[in-house]
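Hey team,

Filing this mostly as a record. A colleague (T.K.) asked me to run one chain through the structure pipeline before their review meeting, and I want the input and output archived in the tracker in case anyone asks later how it was produced. No errors, nothing strange. Just documentation.

Input sequence:
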Amino acid sequence: MRKTTRIALLSALLLSMLVLLCACASNQTQVDVTAAPVATQAPTAVPTATPVPEPTEDEKYQSARQEFLSGDLESAAEAFAALGDFKDAASYVAYIDAATLEMKGRYAEAAAAYAALGDFRDSPVKAGEMLEKADSSTYTQGKTAVKEERYGDAVEAFGELGNYEDAPMQLTYARALQLAENGQYDLAISSLNSLGGFRDSQLRAVYYSAQKAEAEGDYDGAVKIYRQIAAYSGSMDRIYSLGDQGLDAQFKAASDLLAETGWTAQVEGTFLALLDEEYTVEPEKMKQQVYALAETYLAEGNTENARHLFETAAAVNYQDSAERVKECRFADARALIDAGDWDGAEAILAELGDYAGVAEAQAEVAYNRALAAIELNDLAAADAYFAAAGEYSDAPARREAWASDYSVAIALLGGGRYDEAHDAFAALYNYSDSEHMTQESLYRKAAATATAGDWDGAVEQFRALGGYSDSSVQVYAVRYRQAEAMIYAGNYEAASEAFVAAGSYLDAESRVNEPFYVQGKALLEEGKPEEALEALAKSEGYLDTAYFVKAAYYQIGQKELVTLNQLIDLGRTTPEDFTAAIEAFTAADDYEDAAEILADLKAKQAGKPAEEAPAEEPAAEEPVAEEAPAEEAPAEEPAAEEPAAEEPAAEEAPAEEPAAEEAPADAA
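Output structure:
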């Protein structure tokens, strides 16, 4: 499309230049006459006692030309437009439109606009200049895209330029780089070789040959090729790196085998062999990798694989691997303690000797055995185990008094020491209502957990209580409280999810979309209408969502008015410049004065304000209030200024469409 347009513009340009050459002599007289418009205006400057007569069409034409020659294109355009088909006024309007496109940097459009004017003034020359600027801009964009490695953008840019300068070679070069980026090395290399000595084509062709070999796993071959261009584009780094690629591949294979089969004799032999290997750049890298892999397994809770890997690293005395083996075994013991396997835990702890934490863990095991004995009412065994537990937890106190004082348990509960209260009541066996109070302790702990804001923990604790009291109801009550807290904290997505989790508790079902409604209103207050629309869309009609959706579009429209007014200040606008604002105020519907603003925008888009505007001289020099009545205010003046006070509604209403003119000034 770009090439076709350029050919058409060039054809129009050549034809216009031929017409210009043929008409040069006949136009000379006209040029001489129009070049001196001052003579016709001189008499008007002489004050007279009689009223100044209405200017003739020719005088208006000469005045418009004078404004054009002085550089006041906006005023000249309005004056020529008011003259309609008089002389070449329409051509001047079109010429100014083309100049406006040029000032906006829309060179291709400006070229077409100038070419359409034929031989009017310097239109053929300007059309050519615009084509050159458009091509130059596109060419620069293409080279920048190559530099920034945006090869797709570069291909698109150079593809539009045809035979402009060296665009065909630049296009081939960019396509080759794009192919290589996509792994199509053969096509890339072929294209680069076809370019001969253009840029760094030959070096790149060799570089991509090396990359192809590397991608195929031929590391030795890749290194040989990189050595041919060792000083080019990081080739030396690749030479060093590829020397160790084989070891990386072996380590990965061993790691994958371990993940697939677990620790076997084959896996053990493989890792032991790898630990004898040294990397070229980092000799200790293999040991580091094995050690790091062991740490990963340990972090994931796979203590078996972690322990075996640490044992392998310890065989070559790498760092503190031997101590890490004990860490894995201690983790195994902890897991057994948590699972209630006291025998298994004690066996491992006995192996670890004086390793940090072993003595405390052994005391914990003894303590738990004592608790288990209490459950079986074997008080003699419990006493022996508490003695073995030493100072762990409340073992000494339990030995002193089997039947803990009920009042002490109540005090612990009242003081918020729920876990201790639970244990105290549990130690009372069936004394009074102690069995019930053990559950009550956990119930109050869950309530306190919710008050502290640990919602998930509270839900888990209430669920663990099963059917005790109203625990099952409290699960949903906690989620309901969480939802309200999340709204207050501004975590709207989590709030909605919490209301869903609250099920039918109170009015939770009707409040599921409330968080997004609150979020949307908050974003509107922050002046973020686009984000507000996204939030309100999720509220799915909650309360008066529709009203705030309109408010959001109204804000968007107001933002578009700012941009539109800036364009009006810079020069003439096109109907397309009004589109975004019109769409926004259309969506705003009946919100505040959206309808009035919309009517005004549509009128301005259709060109009504420009057609009704009188001569522009008073507005150019002095305030409207002093120069002309309300009907003289140009249609675009209110939109150009933000404060409504500068263009009162009372002045504009009679001149234009009443409500439509007033709204933009207020909105802006």
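Quick notes for T.K.: The CA atoms of residues 629 and 651 lie 8 Å apart. The mean pLDDT is 80.
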